[in-house]
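We close this part of the discussion by returning to an individual protein. Part of our work consisted of pairing the sequence of a single chain with a tokenised description of its backbone. The amino acid sequence and the backbone structure tokens for this protein are reproduced below.
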Amino acid sequence: MAKTPIKNQCPYVKECGACHIGQKSYEDELIEKKKWVEENIGAYCNKVHDIIGMYYPYHYRNKVHAVFGRINDEVVAGTYAKGTHNIIPISACMIEDVQASAIIKTVTELIKSFKLWVYNEDTQRGLMRHILIRKGMSTKQIMVVLVTASPEFPHKNNFVEKLLEIHPEITTIVQNVNMKQTTMVLGERNRPLYGPGYIEDVLCGLRFRISPGSFYQVNSEQTQVLYKKVIEAAGLTGKETIIDAYCGIGTIGMCMSQKSGRVIGIELNPKAVKDAKANARRNGICDIHFIAADAAAYMSLMAESGQKVDIIVLDPPRSGCTKEFMEAAVAMAPKKIIYVSCNPETLGRDLAWFSKAGYIAQEAWPIDMFSFTEHVETVVLIQRKDT
């Protein structure tokens, strides 16, 4: 990794709160993140490896969101100040994709020129609410999602035509309709205005379809590092039966299926399961099965029927695992559990529980997915003590 002293501070850092770019060097940040991981899991893990940082820690986000608003009667796009709904206009973010920032700036200008109303949270009037841009870093495909408060979109054909004229690199444009008074960005309805309504990206040699609401890691380069570390930790021989819990659109499970026997992906969100099944077909993977269910409940039923698996891979939310999930996981008596965590504090809590249940954390690999933020991912190899 190259030495990356920061010479230019981000002008928005004090108000935005999304990151701390400019306040410390990236090298110092990595040292602090490894220390944070060690402080929380060191008592329960035999070895914590050095953190795997990014070679170039800027402009890595392949998913970029901005909210539209008005300041002094001027249309702006940006982010909410930390802990508020006050919009900070941002023209270029140092951790977001450069093309995405340019497209957001163009769309903001087009909203002005087409005289479209910007949505007002207080009055609940107006049309344009948010813009979401997703980019396939391998395929270079770009999706622009325009979130509106109404299905009606005046001058939409001319708007789309002008946007494509300025940014011919855009692959698809989608109108997402969100008519609810909510903090959620996306609504339920998606209407393609140009292109297929989705993009694709390549990860670890596999091709994945990404819809407006699909979960997909925002740092493509480091995601491949993380997945390869998961596969390495699993020590696959080609015969293992694996459960991929909290599987989302199936990325981890499909990457592992290339070197294992059978994979069962479990995900509560039925839309994600639908995407996962489509991704498996797209890649010609037959030895993976996806189930729309609560992972803890489904694994409990499997354990009660006497079913066993060799490896359980889990990537839970920041709150970590529930006791019910961990009890169900142990009931299946896997030889290995591969825990992917985005929160060292809940990870430490869960490793303490697994230790009491007959499992020991052998090795941990911190991986920086989100430079200049307080987040760090950790891959942990947990083994049954009697193996």
